[in-house]
Design goal:
Length: 502
């Protein structure tokens, strides 16, 4: 007998109810929710009078990798008259990590490529940390195989560069693109850290990476996808919003290295823990700076309860925050920041697979996200079914301001559903595996190297610094990666030591 519209509606409602009851409950929530403290600084809320005044030669503002690298350099040089002021309850910035009964896991940065000869500072630090001994890398932390895979045309393939279903013309364009990248690499203008070799201006910086691809006859949708994935991965921006110089730098800046990358269950939190063993005594966490001002020949740095007077400042916090702290600094008008969602999903078993076994890095073709890494991939113990997947999502499909508004106005349940729906593209049973989803809303995750970034006057002012005030942030580079943060931190520390006469 035909079913009426009313009865069909009732049947559908019943099925939806059954589905909801059958689906296992998933707990979780947001982490690192410090927007209120940040917005209080932005809105310049009235400040209490500080209860004490402390005099020091140097104050470091910001306890991320830039600030900690400056502190590492001070410590190496025997200089200990400084303090690190960190807004969050934990130092580390993008290298912070979490831990549960299953595993440690990263909250952002999760690896460092094996350093080549252009990064002596990284090698020096990693030698101190026991990662690089007698010219050999510690095999425990070189990424185990399989390293990468891509879900394409309904199954997993090895590697992230698309291979399944490509035409002969697609393959030709990939080969031609690789040839061009090798030519750029040979110029030695694309290096890490970028400062010693990067030009002050470049025609490649005047156009977007997507425009450069099209201008050079690269039309393959698979190549365009890889380019866009890569810029979203490192810069949080689409290839249309990234300068061609920065896009080419992503591919041409590193030597080909069969080993690596270096990675840990907690990501770069492993480096953070090791640094804090040496430098933790200098860190004042949960102490947001609320005011910075020049006072004669000195600088005044104020927190809620303490006024620090110092001879020099190493500023390792995001550049966009500074105008809210120092009223003499104009607001940045042409430097933008990418918002991100990072989710850690606790699973009591791995989902069913179609094709290759799980890799460390797992990417889904044509997904708006960047895929996920497996926290237990480096475990050498007996294999366990339980794991934590760290899922990355750069909100690059609209303007940063619009993405931030949406990010902060959307509740945890909606984001949780979006993350699970994204993973269902490759794992149909993911909802039967997940027990918990914790989400980090990072509204200003990283600076964007948009077209014109190299010659941007605002960036050049950050590079120069000012009277005994030195920037120690990867914002100056345009690349939010460990090597750049370390370089900027050490350079700022060197300049600070020079002016305080130590």
């Amino acid at each position: 007998m035909p079913t009426s519209r009313h009865s069909r509606r009732a049947l559908c409602a019943g099925l939806i109810g059954l589905t909801a009851k059958a689906e296992r409950p998933v707990t979780g929530g947001f982490v690192f929710e410090s927007q209120l403290a940040g917005h209080a600084i932005r809105d310049r809320q009235p400040l209490p009078a500080p209860r004490q005044t402390v005099k020091l030669p140097v104050v470091i503002v910001g306890g991320g990798m830039g600030g900690l690298s400056a502190a590492w350099w001070f410590h190496k040089k025997g200089f200990h008259d400084f303090v690190i002021l960190e807004m969050e309850k934990e130092a580390g910035g993008n290298s912070r990590y979490g831990q549960n009964e299953v595993s440690a896991y990263p909250w952002s940065a999760h690896y460092v490529p094996v350093p080549n000869s252009d990064t002596p500072l990284v090698r020096e630090l990693f030698s101190e940390l026991g990662l690089f001994v007698d010219g050999q890398w510690d095999e425990r932390w070189l990424c185990h195989a399989p390293q990468e895979r891509l879900f394409l045309h309904g199954r997993w393939q090895e590697g992230i560069e698309p291979d399944i279903g490509l035409t002969a013309e697609d393959h030709r364009q990939f080969k031609a693109f690789d040839t061009r990248i090798q030519e750029f690499r040979a110029t030695r203008q694309f290096r890490i850290p970028m400062a010693p070799a990067a030009p002050a201006d470049s025609p490649l910086d005047k156009i977007s990476f997507r425009q450069w691809l099209e201008n050079n006859g690269f039309k393959s949708p698979y190549l365009h996808w890889l380019a866009d994935y890569s810029t979203r991965d490192d810069f949080g921006a689409s290839s249309a919003d990234t300068s061609a110089w920065a896009g080419i730098h992503y591919f041409a800046s590193r030597d080909h290295e069969e080993k690596g990358p270096l990675t840990w269950p907690e990501g770069n939190g492993w480096i953070l823990r090791k640094l804090l063993l040496k430098l933790g005594k200098f860190v004042r966490a949960g102490k947001p700076v609320v005011r910075i001002a020049k006072a004669g020949s000195a600088w005044e740095i104020q927190t809620a309860d303490t006024l620090y007077r110092c001879d020099a400042v190493v500023y390792a916090a995001p550049a966009f925050v500074l105008p809210y702290l120092d009223s003499s600094v104009p607001h940045l008008k042409s430097i933008s920041y990418s918002p991100w969602i990072v989710s850690n999903l606790t699973l009591d078993r791995m989902p069913a697979e179609k094709g290759l076994e799980p890799a460390w890095d797992n990417v889904i073709y044509a997904s708006p996200s960047l895929g996920y890494v497996v926290s237990t991939h480096q475990n050498v113990q007996m294999r366990t079914d339980k794991t934590v997947l760290t899922h990355y999502w750069a909100l690059a499909n609209t303007t940063p301001a619009a993405a931030r508004r949406h990010l902060l106005s959307t509740d945890w349940g909606v984001w949780k559903e979006r993350v699970l729906a994204d993973l269902q593209r490759a794992h149909r049973d993911i909802r039967q595996c997940v027990t918990r989803v914790d989400i980090f809303r990072n509204a200003h995750a990283m600076v964007r190297p948009t077209p014109g970034f190299l010659s941007n006057p605002e960036r050049k002012l950050l590079q120069m610094g000012r009277d005994r005030f030195f920037y120690a942030s990867a914002d100056v580079s345009g690349f939010s990666i460990f090597e750049e943060a370390q370089y900027r931190g050490v350079e700022a520390a060197r300049r600070a030591l020079a002016v305080v006469g130590r």
